[in-house]
C-alpha cells in the first residue's frame, strides 16, 4: 500500500518515482572523474546524470524537473545552483575525495571549511590517541669504557639525509662520536616489531622501504658511530588541534614507552633534539628553530584566531622549556637574541662531499625542500603560482622529499595539481642535480632556524636567490654571496638577471663557497659541539693559560717528544701558550701566535708520553679551534703520520711543503691549513 501511494504521488507531481543521482561537474577533471567512478560503485542500481558546472539554477531545474533527485555529489566549493536545486541531498566531496552529507550542523560547517573528515568528530580527551608500548634495541659499534657517554633523543631516525634536520643530526652525531660514546633514542613511524624484522632482512642485504629509502632498523651508517639505538613507535595522536594548551606537536610525541627508557638512561649527558621533545628533559636542548618565531610569521600572514592560538601556546611552552635544561643550543645569533639565551652551534655542510664543479650552459633552476615541512610547501606554491609565471623559459627541478604528495595532501587538504616541470621525491644523492643547475631558488616565506639547503648550494658553488627569510641567520650579503628578493616580481627579475649575467652569477657562487668555507664546515662546528658536551660531562682535563711555574713541565714534555719542535720554552709565554692539566699535573701544551687579524700559526704541540692516546692533543686543538675563529696554519714532520692524521680529522688540509725544515734528523715539513 505504501509503495502504491508513493507511486501515485510522484505521478501526480509529474516525477519519476525512482531516485536518481546528479553529479555536478567541476574544473578539476581528474577529481570529478574519480568522484563519479566512486558514486557508480556505491550506487550501481541508480541512474547517474551529470550537471554542467556553468548551468544556472533555472537551467538545472528545467532539466531535472521530472526526476526525483536522491543524491547530488559535488566537489567543494559547491555552486549555489546545486544548493538551491537539492539542498538536502548534497554529498560534498573535498579534494582528498572524502565525502560528507551536508546538513545544518557543526560537522557539515567544519567539513565545508576544509577540516579533514577524520578530525571532525574528535573530542577532547576522547581516548582515541594510541600510544604503542615497548621498544626495540639495535646494537652498533662497541662501547669504550674510557669514554664519556652521550644520550641523544630525536623525533625520527636521522637517516636517510632527506631534509635539513636529518642532515644536522647525522653530521653532529658523527662529530660527537669522535670523542664520546653515543646512544641514540629515536621515534619511528612504523611498528618496531616490523622494524626488527626488517633489521634481520637488512643483515641479508634486504631491508629497504618502497621508493628506495633505507629502513631505520637497518641502521645504515648511523651504526658506525652510535653504540646503541633505541626505537620507539610514534604515537597516533587523536586530539583536536585546538583543544590543548600544549602545542599539538608536543602531544604527538608523548610516549610512555619512550619516557620510561629515557628516564632509565645511563649516560653522562642527555641531549634533546627539537623543542617539541623538551618535555622529556635532559641537559642540552637543541633548538633547530625558534618555533614560536615561525608561528609568529604565520600569524602575521594569516591574521586568524587559530594562528594566534598556535603562536601563543608555542611561545608559552618554549619559554618554559628552556628553564629545564642546563644548556640550550641555537642555530644563529638571531635565534639567540629571540630567546635571550643559548649557545650558537650553527648548521653546516660537508665541504668534502659537496665539492664544486663547473656549471654547464643553460637556464636550469633547482628547488630543494621536503614537503614533510609545511613551510616548504608554502615556498613551492609561491614559486610555482606567483614567481615562475613572471620568469618564462626556464627549466625547474624540484626535490620534494619522501612521500611528498602524501604530505601535500595532509597539509593542504588538496590533491596535487599537474605541474609542468620535473618533480622528484626522495633523492639519495642530490649532488648531480646541483651539478646540472645554473641557479638554486629558495623562495621561503615562513622560516625559523637556518636553512641547510642554502649552505649545500653555496658549497657546490651555485648561485642562490632567496627571500630574506630563506637565508636568515647565515650572515649573507646581497650581491656578494647571495641574491635576495622578497616580492614575486623582484624574485622573477632576479632569476632573469642572474641567468643572463654569467659574470655576476659566478661572482655570487664563488662568494657563497668562501662563506661556507669560513663559517659552516661540519668539522669546525663539531669542535664547538664537543667542547659543550665535554664541559657538561665534567671532563677531568682542564685547559688553561700557561704560567711561569708551568715552564719546567712544558720543557720536560717537549724533551720527551722527539717529533715536536724543540724551541726555547722561555719564549712560549711571549705567545699564546695553553696547557692541559689533569689532577694538578701539566700533561700537555699548545703554543700559537697571531700572524694577521684573521690568521694564526700553531707553533708547537706535545703531550706527555704516559698520557698519550687519551685524546689530550685533540682536546687542546679543539679548544683552540672552537674558541678563536680564524685561518690556522701549522707545519708537521713529513714522517709524523699520527699527527698528520689527527690534523686531517680536525679539518686541516695540506697546502704546501718545506724542504729541510726540521733538523736532527733533517726532514721536510708538510704545511697544513684550516678555517676554524
Quick structural overview:
This protein is of the alpha/beta class. It is built from 23 helices and 26 strands.
Principal-axis shape: elongated
- The radius of gyration over CA amounts to 31 Å
Strand order of the largest sheet: 6-9-8-7-10-11-12-13
CATH class of the largest domain: Alpha Beta
**What class do helices, strands and sheet pairing give?**
alpha/beta
How many strands? 26
Q: Which topology of the largest domain does CATH recognise? A: Rossmann fold
- Quote the average pLDDT: 87
Brief descriptors of the model:
eight-stranded mixed β-sheet; Rossmann fold; 35% helix; 4 domains; 676 residues; seven-stranded mixed β-sheet; single chain; 23 helices; alpha/beta
Can you give a write-up of this model?
It is built from 23 helices and 26 strands. With 676 residues, it is of the alpha/beta class. It has 4 domains: 119 residues, Rossmann fold (3-Layer(aba) Sandwich), CATH 3.40.50; 209 residues, Rossmann fold, CATH 3.40.50; 156 residues, Rossmann fold (3-Layer(aba) Sandwich), CATH 3.40.50; 136 residues, 3-Layer(aba) Sandwich (Aminopeptidase). Strands 6-9-8-7-10-11-12-13 form an 8-stranded mixed beta sheet, sandwiched between helices. Helix 17 packs across helix 19. The longest helix is centred in the middle third of the chain and has 18 residues.
Amino acid at each position: 500500500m505504501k509503495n502504491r501511494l508513493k507511486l501515485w504521488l510522484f505521478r501526480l507531481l509529474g516525477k519519476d518515482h525512482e531516485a536518481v543521482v546528479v553529479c555536478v561537474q567541476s574544473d578539476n577533471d581528474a577529481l570529478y572523474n574519480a568522484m563519479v567512478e566512486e558514486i557508480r560503485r556505491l550506487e550501481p542500481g541508480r541512474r547517474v546524470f551529470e550537471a554542467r558546472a556553468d548551468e544556472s539554477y533555472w537551467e538545472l531545474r528545467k532539466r531535472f524537473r521530472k526526476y526525483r533527485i536522491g543524491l547530488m555529489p559535488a566537489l567543494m566549493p559547491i555552486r549555489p545552483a546545486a544548493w538551491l536545486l537539492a539542498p538536502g541531498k548534497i554529498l560534498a566531496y573535498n579534494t582528498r575525495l572524502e565525502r560528507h552529507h551536508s546538513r545544518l550542523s557543526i560537522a557539515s560547517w567544519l567539513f565545508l571549511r576544509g577540516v579533514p573528515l577524520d578530525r571532525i568528530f574528535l573530542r577532547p580527551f576522547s581516548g582515541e590517541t594510541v600510544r604503542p608500548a615497548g621498544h626495540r634495541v639495535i646494537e652498533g659499534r662497541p662501547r669504550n669504557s674510557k669514554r664519556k657517554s652521550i644520550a641523544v633523543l630525536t623525533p625520527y631516525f636521522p637517516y636517510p639525509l632527506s631534509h635539513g634536520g636529518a642532515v644536522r643530526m647525522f653530521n653532529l652525531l658523527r662529530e660527537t662520536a669522535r670523542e664520546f660514546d653515543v646512544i641514540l633514542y629515536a621515534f619511528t613511524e612504523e611498528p618496531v616489531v616490523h622494524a626488527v624484522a626488517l633489521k634481520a632482512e637488512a643483515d641479508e642485504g634486504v631491508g629497504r622501504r618502497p621508493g628506495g629509502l633505507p629502513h631505520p632498523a637497518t641502521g645504515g651508517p648511523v651504526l658506525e658511530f652510535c653504540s646503541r639505538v633505541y626505537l620507539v613507535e610514534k604515537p597516533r595522536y587523536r586530539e583536536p588541534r585546538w583543544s590543548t594548551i600544549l602545542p599539538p606537536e608536543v602531544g604527538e610525541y608523548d610516549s610512555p614507552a619512550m619516557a620510561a627508557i629515557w628516564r632509565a638512561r645511563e649516560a653522562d649527558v642527555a641531549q634533546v633534539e627539537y623543542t617539541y621533545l623538551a618535555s622529556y628533559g635532559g641537559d642540552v636542548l637543541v633548538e633547530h628553530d625558534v618555533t614560536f618565531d615561525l608561528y609568529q610569521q604565520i600569524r602575521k600572514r594569516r591574521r586568524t584566531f587559530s594562528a594566534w592560538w598556535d603562536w601563543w601556546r608555542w611561545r608559552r611552552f618554549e619559554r618554559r622549556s628552556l628553564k629545564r635544561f642546563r644548556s640550550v643550543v641555537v642555530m644563529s645569533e638571531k635565534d639567540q637574541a629571540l630567546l635571550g639565551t643559548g649557545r650558537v652551534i650553527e648548521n653546516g655542510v660537508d665541504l668534502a662531499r659537496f665539492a664544486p664543479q663547473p656549471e654547464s650552459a643553460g637556464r636550469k633552476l633547482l628547488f630543494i625542500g621536503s614537503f614533510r615541512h609545511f613551510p616548504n610547501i608554502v615556498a613551492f606554491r609561491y614559486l610555482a603560482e606567483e614567481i615562475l609565471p613572471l620568469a618564462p623559459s626556464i627549466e625547474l627541478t624540484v626535490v620534494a622529499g619522501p612521500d611528498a604528495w602524501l604530505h601535500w595532501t595532509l597539509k593542504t587538504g588538496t590533491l596535487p595539481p599537474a605541474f609542468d616541470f620535473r618533480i622528484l621525491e626522495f633523492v639519495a644523492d642530490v649532488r648531480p642535480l646541483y651539478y646540472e643547475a645554473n641557479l638554486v631558488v629558495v623562495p621561503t616565506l615562513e622560516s625559523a632556524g637556518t636553512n641547510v639547503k642554502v649552505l649545500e648550494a653555496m658549497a657546490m658553488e651555485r648561485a642562490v636567490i632567496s627571500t630574506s627569510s630563506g637565508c636568515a641567520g647565515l650572515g649573507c650579503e646581497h650581491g656578494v654571496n647571495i641574491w635576495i628578493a622578497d616580492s614575486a616580481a623582484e624574485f622573477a627579475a632576479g632569476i632573469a638577471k642572474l641567468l643572463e649575467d654569467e659574470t655576476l652569477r659566478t661572482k655570487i657562487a664563488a662568494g657563497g663557497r668562501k662563506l661556507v668555507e669560513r663559517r659552516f664546515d661540519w668539522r669546525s662546528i663539531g669542535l664547538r659541539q664537543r667542547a659543550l658536551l665535554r664541559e657538561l660531562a665534567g671532563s677531568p682535563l682542564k685547559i688553561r693559560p700557561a704560567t711561569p711555574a708551568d715552564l719546567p713541565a712544558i720543557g720536560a714534555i717537549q724533551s720527551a717528544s722527539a717529533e715536536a719542535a724543540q724551541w726555547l720554552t722561555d719564549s712560549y709565554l711571549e705567545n699564546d701558550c695553553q696547557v692541559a692539566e689533569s689532577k694538578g699535573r701539566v700533561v700537555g701544551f699548545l703554543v700559537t701566535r697571531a700572524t694577521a687579524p684573521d690568521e694564526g700559526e700553531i707553533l708547537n704541540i706535545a703531550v706527555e708520553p704516559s698520557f698519550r692516546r687519551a685524546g689530550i692533543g685533540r682536546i687542546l686543538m679543539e679548544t683552540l679551534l672552537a674558541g678563536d675563529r680564524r685561518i690556522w696554519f701549522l707545519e708537521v714532520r713529513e714522517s709524523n703520520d699520527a699527527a698528520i692524521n689527527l690534523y686531517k680529522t680536525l679539518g686541516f688540509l695540506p697546502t704546501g711543503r718545506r724542504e729541510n725544515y726540521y733538523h736532527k734528523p733533517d726532514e721536510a715539513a708538510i704545511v697544513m691549513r684550516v678555517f676554524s
